[in-house]
């Protein structure tokens, strides 16, 4: 394999245009070889701006390109499963946007196909590659807050009223894997599982639903062994919330409202001792978490490292999301 992994990108979604394509192009070990879009004219600016060599008018054509090593999939949620399967079957490694699938069953099928093809599959949770996230994970592992026993997370934003009333956005379409839980709730579940280093045993949730049928406002709880609890909030109808707090027996770590997407500015967190009211504010130098993510994946493709996060982690995350969705619909406590 060449020094740089050759990437193919399926679709021209905002996350690809704004974050991941630029990250790949400035990475030390990868380049976007081709972009596939069903609307090539609309993608022309992106192709020109990022000097992408090829633009295909079908996803199948890109996947068939023998020069491509890895495929990034930023398609709507319901298309993650079929196109990941197709890309893996064609011998490509796959970095797929979150949530990996629409349910744990689909995620398992994707993982099984990756194993059968001998290719890598990873869910694109970019926040886990930011130096601040890594520092907090290290701090917890070193006992910096004692035994972690409580987590709070929130990822909320207010959709445009016209968008909400029309129901036209893909996030509001149940047949496309829409809903606040799937769109942003996956972050809250992921972060608590990662920092607690544990899987929840049961969940509870309440939700407000859009007329189309998807959840647009939800709050819930997760229960773990050892008296550990987590609280999460997600919403399409509330003002900005993008934060988490991890509380332990000896202290707590708190983040401002850039917890998952701090962009490239300096990132801060507050570390409080057991009885501290204010604590100490720490600053971590800014970084592009998307670039760090794609560089890690490309290193793994080139067999220079192992993936930090396996498909099994994504399957476990989807199991929890499935349980939360059921708990919100039924009003019952659901075991994971």
What does this molecule look like?
With 336 residues, this protein is of the alpha/beta class. The chain has two domains: 5-124, Rossmann fold; 127-292 and 317-335, 2-Layer Sandwich (Dihydrodipicolinate Reductase, domain 2). The chain is built from ten helices and 15 strands. The chain has helices spanning 14-25, 40-49, 59-63, 80-89, 104-117, 131-141, 161-166, 180-196, 289-301, 311-330, and strands at residues 5-10, 30-36, 54-56, 70-73, 93-96, 121-123, 148-158, 202-209, 215-224, 228-235, 237-248, 251-254, 267-273, 280-284, 334-335. It has a nine-stranded mixed β-sheet with strand order 14-13-12-11-7-10-9-8-15. Strand 1 (5-10), helix 1 (14-25) and strand 2 form a beta-alpha-beta unit. Helix 1 (14-25) crosses helix 9 (289-301), helix 4 (80-89) packs parallel to helix 5 and helix 5 (104-117) packs antiparallel against helix 10 (311-330). The longest helix is centred in the C-terminal third of the chain and has 20 residues, at 311-330. The radius of gyration is 20 Å and the shape is globular. The mean pLDDT is 97.
């Amino acid at each position: 394999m060449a020094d740089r992994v050759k990437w193919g990108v399926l679709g021209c979604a905002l996350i690809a245009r704004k974050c991941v394509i630029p990250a790949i192009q400035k990475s030390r070990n990868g380049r976007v070889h081709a972009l596939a879009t069903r609307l090539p004219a609309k993608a022309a600016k992106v192709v020109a701006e990022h000097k992408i060599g090829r633009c295909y008018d079908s996803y199948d054509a890109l996947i068939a390109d023998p020069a491509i090593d890895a495929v990034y999939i930023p398609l709507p949620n319901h298309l993650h499963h079929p196109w990941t399967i197709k890309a893996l079957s064609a011998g490509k490694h796959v970095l797929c946007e979150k949530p990996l699938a629409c349910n744990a069953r689909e995620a398992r099928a994707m993982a099984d196909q990756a194993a059968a093809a001998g290719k890598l599959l990873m869910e694109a949770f970019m926040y886990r590659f930011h130096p601040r996230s890594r520092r907090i994970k290290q701090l917890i592992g070193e006992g910096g807050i004692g035994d972690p026993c409580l987590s709070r997370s929130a990822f909320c934003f207010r959709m445009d009223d016209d968008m909400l009333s029309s129901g036209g956005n893909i996030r509001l379409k149940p047949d496309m894997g829409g809903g606040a839980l799937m769109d942003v709730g996956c972050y809250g579940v992921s972060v608590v599982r990662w920092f607690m280093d544990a899987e929840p045993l049961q969940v509870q949730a309440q939700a407000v639903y859009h007329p189309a049928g998807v959840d647009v406002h939800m709050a819930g709880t997760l229960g773990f062994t050892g008296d550990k609890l987590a609280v999460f909030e997600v919403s399409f109808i509330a003002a900005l919330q993008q934060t988490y707090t991890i509380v332990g027996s000896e202290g707590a770590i708190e983040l401002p409202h850039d917890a998952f997407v701090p962009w490239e500015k300096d990132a801060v967190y507050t570390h409080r001792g057991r009885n501290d009211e204010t604590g100490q504010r720490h600053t971590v130098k800014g970084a592009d978490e998307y670039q760090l993510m794609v560089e890690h994946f490309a290193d793994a493709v080139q067999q220079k490292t192992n993936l930090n996060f396996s498909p099994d982690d994504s399957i476990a995350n989807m199991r929890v999301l499935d349980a939360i969705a059921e708990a919100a619909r039924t009003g019952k406590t659901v075991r994971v």
